[in-house]
Amino acid sequence: MNDNGTGTHGAVLPDTPAPRDTPLVELRRAGKSYGNVRALHGVDLTVRAGRVTCVLGDNGAGKSTLIKIISGLHRHTEGDFLVDGRPVRFGTPRDALDQGIAAVYQDLATVPLMPVWRNFFLGSELTRGPWPLRRLDIARMKETADRELRRMGIVLDDLEQPVGTLSGGQRQCVAIARAVHFGARVLILDEPTAALGVKQSGVVLKYIAAARERGLGVVFITHNPHHAYMVGDHFSVLRLGTLELSAARGDITLEQLTDHMAGGAELATLKHELSQVRGVELDALPEDLGDTFPEGTT
Ligand SMILES: Nc1ncnc2c1ncn2[C@@H]1O[C@H](COP(=O)(O)OP(=O)(O)O)[C@@H](O)[C@H]1O
Ligand SMILES: [Mg+2]
């Protein structure tokens, strides 16, 4: 390997695989408008293999819009979106999946009354035998689901149990293991711990760490700086659609991250409250209301 990482001969051929340090996913000055609502603007984000990129921000900050772009649900309207260093423009989530980008949403696409193993293979069932005698290969599906769940450190007593009987944390974990099994290189988790208690959140954080250990690039959306700091390698804080902070783990403490989040939440809440009051011109308010309203008065 030479200095510029292009291989032993230094020649850059059209088919040369991306150098090892090329990010899996990269957004450069990316943005998205819904009609004339600008939900996201000028956002840079990098997702690397074996790293957890946390995206934080209050409600309405643009977190969901951001991951909808990456997962193929929405197209960006500004800037660049690259996968393995190549510009892409996805039309559907299928396009993203084909590139190994999988999103696990909070309202999971699981069928509560179906057994765990069946949910694991939902939409991608294994079959055996030649057509027209082809049948579901139940034994192989159970065995594979069991093996994949164990590889992620998830041990369930009975894969026949309906997915609806699992805890919220366990359901997230089944969805994560499923995405990994079906070839995800980039795993996007939208607020996976938001509805969970402390213990269940810990379970999910453990699997986020497990996914990272397996070399996936993880995008972890959360509004909880404590959860983010437990597993994150990089932190990006969105506020009102723009990147308010982008910091590597070594460059920021949990206290600083928490301060950024708390400040943002207060400001957004205050602006929202004030917007309900007639006669208040929001644009005339100072950018940083911290000095205007001393602690305890907001
Ligand atoms: N489909 C849409 N049409 C119009 N505006 C939208 C749409 N989706 C989101 N928005 C707006 O974009 C902004 C960012 O929303 P969103 O990405 O959902 O934020 P978050 O996930 O951080 O709460 C909000 O002001 C929201 O009202
Ligand atoms: Mg959201």
TrEMBL record:
CDD domains: ABC_Carb_Monos_I
Domain called ABC transporter: residue spans: 25-265
Hydrolase found in the keyword field: no
Protein's UniProt name: Simple sugar transport system ATP-binding protein
KW ATP-binding (keyword) present: yes
An MF annotation (GO) of this entry: ATP hydrolysis activity
UniProt feature coiled coil, ranges: none
UniProt keywords, alphabetically: ATP-binding, Nucleotide-binding, Sugar transport, Transport
Pfam families assigned: ABC_tran
Region of interest called Disordered, as start-end residue ranges on this chain: 1-21
